[in-house]
DNA sequence: ATGTCAATATCCTATTGA
């Protein structure tokens, strides 16, 4: 069986429910993982998605900030969530499909503006969140699992528009890249997107602040699809839907997709 | 490159977060 998973930081699921519906209609992924829903779970417009066949949803939410949801055409068992680094935020939820595949949906803290935990508490929280992820996956070695989400780090030089100019910018600093690498190693996660598309610049986020995001093209690959080694070979056809960033009233993130033959 | 966008609280403007 082949199934396609998509991940998308939606930046308000209520405001952009029509865009979610458009993506579901045009791409028909089996599973869509959303981040930054910015909504309590009971106010997510699940009925809009159910009408399109996505009758199963597992979600965690809070008022105004954060929030993650997994929409699925197939039944998905709620495996719970973990409040990594004890921030009291809704940033993770996990589910299991009937084929036995576990899905982790993450929204890693953005980390604020200054890349120094001594003066910026949010940066420390981001590093602690990643360290807690690392320790947890060391303790609970994932198998037959997919991890997706807005990890808020662009690890490779070709994951950013200018490696040199972003070395001190939160999302691409060496300490963040190191922390992300340790998390990836602890779960023996394979970066599916880069296994599929190993060469060339690849972005999933473009700032709202650019006058012309498309022309400037100063993007970063913050959104990721990882899989454990036992199923990563089944992945193919990875895509980042850049054109979605150009939709009316868009999210600043584009959806990232991968297909697995399992 | 201090620009744009969204949610909230208090109210139609400021603050916070990204």
Describe this structure as you would to a colleague.
By secondary structure, the protein is an alpha+beta fold. The chain has a single domain (2-261), classed as Endonuclease/exonuclease/phosphatase (Deoxyribonuclease I, Chain A). 25% of the residues lie in helices and 27% in strands. The chain contains eight helices and 14 strands. The protein has helices at residues 17-27, 46-50, 121-139, 163-166, 174-186, 192-196, 213-216, 229-232, and strands spanning 2-9, 31-35, 56-60, 68-72, 76-80, 92-97, 102-107, 145-150, 189-191, 205-206, 219-220, 223-228, 235-240, 256-261. Strand 6 and strand 7 form a beta hairpin. The chain is globular. The chain starts with a strand and ends with a strand. The protein binds one DNA strand of 18 nucleotides through residues 11-12, 15, 36, 38, 63-65, 110, 112-113, 122, 152, 207-211, 218, 249, 252.
Summary keywords:
262 residues, alpha+beta, Deoxyribonuclease I, Chain A, 25% helix, globular, DNA-binding
- Widest beta sheet: strand line-up: 3-4-2-1-14-13
Q: Structural class of the secondary elements?
A: alpha+beta
Radius of gyration: 17 Å
Largest sheet: 6 strands, mixed
H-E order:
EHEHEEEEEHEHHEHEHEEHEE
CATH fold name: Deoxyribonuclease I, Chain A
- CATH classification, class level: Alpha Beta
Write down the oligomeric state. Answer: single chain
